[in-house]
Amino acid sequence: MTTIAYKDGVIAYDSRQTRGGAIVSDDCLKCQIVDGVSFFLSGAVCDEKALIAAYFGTPSPVPVECSGYAVHDGKLLMVGHDDKTGVWKQELDPTNPDAIGSGSAYALAAMDMGASAEDAVRAAMKRDIYTGGKVRTVQIARDH
């Protein structure tokens, strides 16, 4: 999987891509921009296009095994998919740190102790075998 963390207007994420128990790449870009919406997704890479399509109104006929963040018009959203309702979107409080992915518990604990989103991903990299490579960051607009 991955670790994607949000704090103080910054999304940070690692660059490791895995398949099963193997590292496929430590230089994977995990930010996809489609029609002005930035997606930061975790889970099955093969399902990312289906989740993005569902986000824009094209339902998936099969289960989608990924979720993540979307930044749409400056708002931070958690996005996912389930069998009953299809795509779901939940606006997140921009003042509240958040993390998703296999290293999310490590990242959240690090942010609780004062770490930035970037440092939280680095903390997750120490313990989560599915988080690694480079740490990339994206500044998003924040409403105050």
Automatic annotation (TrEMBL):
Q: Which domain of life is it from?
A: Bacteria
Report the protein name in the record: Proteasome subunit beta
Q: Which organism is it from?
A: Pseudomonas saponiphila
